[in-house]
Specification:
Elements: H1 2-17, H2 25-67, H3 70-116
Helix pairs in contact: 1-3, 2-3
Length: 117
């Protein structure tokens, strides 16, 4: 997913930097909105998974501290190992989708300009 979202955003950045005269901005807008919707869905799923892993980790940590069970500390460590990459991936998704919103604004401006011609 990381490669896909970065490649897509980079391709749109290149298109916006050097827009061609014959670019169909309405089609670009439609495609961009579909891609943003896909990535928003992915972002939501990762938010849910990350939040659940974090809550589970905190609950296990509380049990480990209160009950003093060493096995629970191992579970906490395992969940922490999962949580760190989840947070990193969610951070990437969130920031890239936010950048895509900026791209949307630029595409919209170009679409309006192309309709005036």
């Amino acid at each position: 997913m990381k490669k896909r979202i970065l490649n897509y955003r980079t391709s749109i950045d290149r298109l916006l930097e050097n827009p061609a005269e014959d670019t169909d901005w309405a089609q670009v807008m439609k495609t961009h909105m579909n891609q943003v919707a896909f990535f928003q869905h992915e972002r939501l799923i990762h938010l849910i998974v990350t939040a659940l892993v974090a809550v589970l980790m905190v609950m296990c940590l509380a049990i480990a501290v209160i009950a003093g069970q060493i096995v629970m500390f191992l579970l906490v460590f395992g969940l922490l190992v999962l949580l760190v990459p989840y947070l990193g991936h969610y951070y990437l998704l969130e920031n890239e989708v936010q950048r895509m919103y900026g791209q949307y604004d630029k595409i919209e401006e170009l679409l309006i300009k192309s309709r005036r011609r």
